[in-house]
TrEMBL record:
GO terms for cellular component: cytosol. This is Probable chorismate pyruvate-lyase. Signal peptide: none annotated. Keywords: Cytoplasm, Lyase, Pyruvate, Ubiquinone biosynthesis. Belongs to the UbiC family. Its EC number is 4.1.3.40. GO terms for biological process: pyruvate biosynthetic process; ubiquinone biosynthetic process.
Length: 197
């Protein structure tokens, strides 16, 4: 059996059930493993927090997302991508996919979120069931790493592995997969918070 081409391996992520498998720098681990709302945690580490919606539209899901959301192969999904900004500095790139089979009864507020937090909606709804966290290292060739860098423009980190987590949510018959890519600037929030003490 031939090895998978290097280009293909760079575009795929190996999602792991435990953060230790990433061998990530220790400063990332509290962000990757924190329970509850990431939005609330980011707000606690900044004076000003906002969500910048990059787009919300129909797209094709990534190869490493299809099985997670119950699809046999990559296909069309509702996709939402955002930057979570702390004191106007992007700290997290957020990527959410919802299968086209979901309807308004499954995710009633998804289509009208705009600049509002998806996390606040998910954690405030008693019908939402949260799955387990998975973790991955995203190499520069992975589509989400590329999109995060494109959103950051000239300030994007180059040739650097990005660390991400994802979680599957269910509501009624619908599923929704949220991936959060932690940008290097998130580590500055920890340092700033520590210095305030």
């Amino acid at each position: 059996m031939s090895a998978r081409p290097r280009g293909a391996s760079l575009r795929q992520a190996q999602w792991q059930p435990h953060v230790l498998a990433l061998n990530a720098p220790a400063a990332y681990v509290p962000w990757l493993t924190a329970g509850g709302s990431l939005t609330a945690r980011l707000k606690a580490h900044s004076d000003s927090f906002r969500i910048q919606c990059l787009h919300q539209r129909i797209e094709r899901c990534l190869g490493d997302e299809a099985v997670a959301i119950g699809m046999h192969r990559p296909g069309r999904v509702w996709e939402r991508e955002v930057l979570l900004r702390c004191d106007n500095t992007p700290a997290v790139f957020g990527h959410t996919v919802v299968p086209m089979s979901a309807n308004a009864a499954d995710w009633p507020l998804f289509s009208t979120l705009g600049e509002r937090s998806l996390g606040s909606t998910l954690f405030g709804d008693p019908l939402v069931r949260r799955g387990v966290l998975e973790f991955a290292r995203l190499r520069e060739g992975h589509p989400l790493a590329q999109r995060a860098r494109a959103a950051l423009g000239a300030n994007a980190p180059r040739d650097q592995i990005l660390y991400a987590r994802r979680c599957l949510y269910q509501r009624r018959q619908g599923t929704l997969l949220v991936t959060e890519v932690f940008l290097p600037s998130v580590l500055e929030l920890i340092k700033t918070n520590d210095n305030k003490r």
